[in-house]
Amino acid sequence: MILTVTLNTALDITYQVDALTPHTTHRVTDVIERPGGKGVNVARVLAALGHDTVVTGFAGGTTGGVLRDLLAPLPVRDALVPVAGTTRRTVAVADAATGDTTQLNEPGPTVGPDEWSAFLTAYEELVRDADAVALCGSLPPGIHVGAYADLVRRARAASVPVVLDTSGEPLRRGIAARPDLVKPNADELARLTGAREPLRATRDARRRGAHAVVASLGPDGLLAVTPDGTWRAAPPEPVRGNPTGAGDSAVAGLLSGLVEGAAWPDRLARATALSAATVLAPAAGEFDMATYRELLSRITVTEHATAA
Amino acid sequence: MILTVTLNTALDITYQVDALTPHTTHRVTDVIERPGGKGVNVARVLAALGHDTVVTGFAGGTTGGVLRDLLAPLPVRDALVPVAGTTRRTVAVADAATGDTTQLNEPGPTVGPDEWSAFLTAYEELVRDADAVALCGSLPPGIHVGAYADLVRRARAASVPVVLDTSGEPLRRGIAARPDLVKPNADELARLTGAREPLRATRDARRRGAHAVVASLGPDGLLAVTPDGTWRAAPPEPVRGNPTGAGDSAVAGLLSGLVEGAAWPDRLARATALSAATVLAPAAGEFDMATYRELLSRITVTEHATAA
């Protein structure tokens, strides 16, 4: 079983409008609601790949109820922990003409100390049955900035591989707890290390404690610095489309390869193909299985000559 | 009892952001939820003025449930009729710097023929006990464009005064059914009559069937063309602020005066003062009772010399 953790789950709402013009009134022509938060997205992709997947984190209030109702028909197990506050909504306003989106993210409920304790109890129990754990996304208000570092340590104490995908100070603290893998994008990497050059920044991130670092380079694919070597993985041509969820699909690909004991080039090919298949899918955050399968054999994975 | 009808009720959500910039990501710093739709706003003001008030229309789904939960503590009676679809949300994105808002309005649930029949049954029963009826706002999908005309006729058949506050074709059809009062704003009036000059347009609207027309002229106050005369009502100085809900407060003032048998100048003074007190209130759509009382004696109502 693969466990994904989303401490700040969300009900993702997409509004289709003709074109967003500030300080005017818009008729929303279409409303789509999906269960969201990065770990939920990762779980959905893992489930589509046939992995036994469990989702934990927090859900509360009316919006939390809607989120759980939308999770129920999906092939993932809901192990979300109740919270007194109300789960946040995110609103993506999509312009019909250009497809460009404007994102409005609610902050999420404040998590109290008792709720955090209840989560830790649930987490430790779930980790015992897990083949891998993914810790994904931002921290809701009330949770201390070292929370991911704590969760990384607990997974490591149970000898379960742990992947961390977050940003800012929670990433900085989390890396120091020595996760098996972090997956920053170029911006997160630059903020973490101060270095802009991807290979240098990725190596620097790894020196901060992560066993392996896979940096996403947007349309150019992935760069991995691991104990076994350094690789670049790229799609046959740079893909253009809606990047929503592409990073989450990459995490799912890396986890999928990890639990199957695949070699790094195979893991990176899966992650790159899933990420590209997500960018190319017409619906934001979805991926097309046929596109994924077709792309998988066409991903180029090149080993970097110098030592990691 | 005053009955307000809101066929397309809404959960009004306000998001505070630093500044809305299309095609970027925004952290929402504050979320406010209120029960909404024009008739609900009218009822809230009437209740604050001490009137026994009943709200009807449709509510359904999770959002309808939240709407009803938010109505419950207010001093208005909830007589909303269930609908299978989900009540719409409206999202007002307010820029912290300027206070300017960007409005995103969901379309609302499609109302089926059986639901419309159930509403008509409830409406006829409620109208029997009403001193006045207000029909407010847009029609949800599935409801025929002559629906307000039908509701006006049923109120008139029960000898209950009826106020219509809507726009477009539903207003055009509704006026022909001879409501006691319509309250268009300058834009609605121009669309209805083709005339831009307020007095001419207001008289034209009245000739289409309404017994009285009160046109709102924004910060300049109200213009009333009635069987008893023609008046302009204006605040001591034009008010600037957030106009959200100002028209609904004006309708509440007109209804309040109507059921108390007040003369037109008094009705118009109440409506103008309530409207201005709503524009001046810090929270969108609220009105400040002290400001209302202070303004009430300072409203100028001038009778127009020529015949209506």
TrEMBL record, chains A, B:
Residues 8-285 form the Carbohydrate kinase PfkB domain. It comes from Streptomyces ficellus. InterPro entries: Carboh/pur_kinase_PfkB_CS (IPR002173), PfkB_dom (IPR011611), Ribokinase-like (IPR029056), Tagatose/fructose_Pkinase (IPR017583). PANTHER family: 1-PHOSPHOFRUCTOKINASE, 1-PHOSPHOFRUCTOKINASE-RELATED. This is 1-phosphofructokinase family hexose kinase. Keywords: ATP-binding, Kinase, Nucleotide-binding, Transferase. One of its GO terms (molecular function) is ATP binding. One of its GO terms (biological process) is small molecule metabolic process. Belongs to the carbohydrate kinase PfkB family. Pfam families: PfkB. One of its GO terms (cellular component) is cytosol.
